[in-house]
Amino acid sequence: MPRRYLTRGTRNSADYNPVDHLNAIFSHPSSLSSIVKTSDALHTYQNELDEEIEALTRHQSVSDVESVKRIRAAKDDLAELFPKVEDVRARAMQTEEAITEMTADIKRLDNTKKNLTLSMTALKRLQMLTTAYEQLRGLSSSRQYKECAQLLQAVIQLMAHFKSYRSIDQIATLGRNVSDLQREMLEQVCEDFEVTFAKAEVSQRRGVLAEACLVMDALGDNARSRLITWYCNTQLREYRQVFRGNEEAGSLDNISRRYAWFRRMLKTYDDEHAVMFPANWRMSEMLANAFCEGTRDDFKHILSRSIRRDDGLSLDVDLLLSCLQETLDFEHSLERRFNSASRASIDTVSSDSEKAPVFSQAISEAFEPYLSVWVEAQDK
After folding, report:
1. For residues 117 and 30, which has the higher predicted lDDT (pLDDT)?
2. For the segment 184-234, what is each residue's pLDDT rounded down to a tens digit?
3. What angle do CA 199, 201, 206 make, to 5 degrees?
4. What letter does residue 361 receive in the DSSP assignment?
5. Which residues contact 6 (CB under 8 A, 6 or more apart)?
6. The pTM of the whole model exceeds 0.90
7. DSSP state, residue 260
8. How confident is the model at residue 146 (pLDDT cuts 50, 70, 90)?
9. CB–CB of 25/38 below 8 Å?
10. How far is CA 119 from CA 133, 231, 279, in A?
11. How far out from the chain centre does Cα 191 lie?
12. pLDDT, average across residues 31-53
């Protein structure tokens, strides 16, 4: 029987039919002589299959035992691993707690350091303030105003750091002492100016008064304004006495005398007083402004009284125009002296396009309601 009829591929086919296979082997009567050989071949093939199955069974049994061993080993490893993982987790939690406590300690130490630094800084400033206060008292009593001005600024700045500590008695007491000393220095400087001008000793004490102005600057705007107001009132006191207390001198006929008097006073300021006052005070401008305000009020009163005269005489139109022209000329002279692009006056009025001149209509405003008299005279 041909070997090809016993191939494993034929028998292993999914549609294998043994009857068809036998018919194929014994397809001719002459092939019946190979029945014995075919039977032997089949027995041999059966034995091979049995041996192969037995070998595979033994191999599978060995593999199952090894798998069981590996599974048991894996379980043993896991049994050992789980406690280790739990130990690591417990240690991690302990480490986290330790880090949290350490961070809290560091934060507390940092706050303590910050508070300690603030306390040391406050104590150092308090020491500086106390020392500066004592020095300032001594300098003030000896009228060393230049040194006083510098030290006073330092005292005021240091005192500002202790506003939140006013509930402490010692700090509150020191604050009151500093405030009292500031008031004493203000009154002392004002008194020095008053006495110096009253005794006509300006030329001798010009340097001291100039340094005293530095103290007023350090004391602030209110102190500076008080001294400026006093100076303007003092310089214009004679003017007010002469031209307000005397009806003839204060009349419109003598308007030129008013302006001449002020020009002389400005010259005195330039020659004798200007060096005493800091440039940023603009003292001459403040003086001119005070003069213009007072003169404008005087003219309003004089013109109003002239209109209400009982003697039947009307306001002299020529005199009115002459006074107005002279007033405008005086205002223009002030403009030439004081008007500056880098300086804004307290009388400056803002417009949409530009700023009006400093002294524009500072006095002539008083004449505006009475220009109708001139119009009526022209109509006649």
Report:
1. 117
2. 999 999 999 999 999 999 999 999 999 999 999 999 999 999 999 999 999
3. 140
4. T
5. 41, 42, 45
6. no
7. H
8. very high
9. yes
10. 21, 46, 42
11. 40
12. 80
Amino acid at 238: E
Joined tokens for residue 13? 């086919």
Nearest to 356 by CA among 368, 365, 347, 343: 347
Closest C-alpha among 359, 217, 232 to residue 284: 232
The residues near 105 (Cβ < 8 Å, ≥ 6 apart) are none
Q: Which residues have C-beta within 8 Å of that of residue 149, sequence separation ≥ 6?
A: 211, 214, 215, 217, 218
> Which residue from 168, 218, 209, 169 is spatially nearest to 189, judged by alpha carbons?
209
With tokens 């330092």, the residue in question is 154
CA separation (Å) from 322 to 27, 123, 177, 242, 259? Answer: 162, 71, 59, 22, 14
Count the neighbouring beta carbons within 10 Å of the beta carbon of residue 182: 21
Contact 131, 175 (CB under 8 A): no
Average pLDDT, the chain: 83
Tens digits of per-residue pLDDT, 94-136?
999 889 888 888 898 888 888 888 888 888 988 999 999 999 9
pLDDT score for 55: 83
Query: What Cα–Cα distance (Å) separates residue 155 from each residue in 126, 202, 208, 213?
Result: 10, 30, 22, 18
Comparing CA positions, the residue from 82, 98, 73, 3 lying closest to residue 42 is: 3
- Rounded to whole angstroms, the Cα distance separating 250 from 239 reads 10
Nearest partner of 301 among 211, 256, 366, judged by Cα: 366
Nearest to 277 by CA among 188, 344, 214: 214
pLDDT in tens, 301-334: 888 887 765 444 566 788 888 899 999 999 999 9
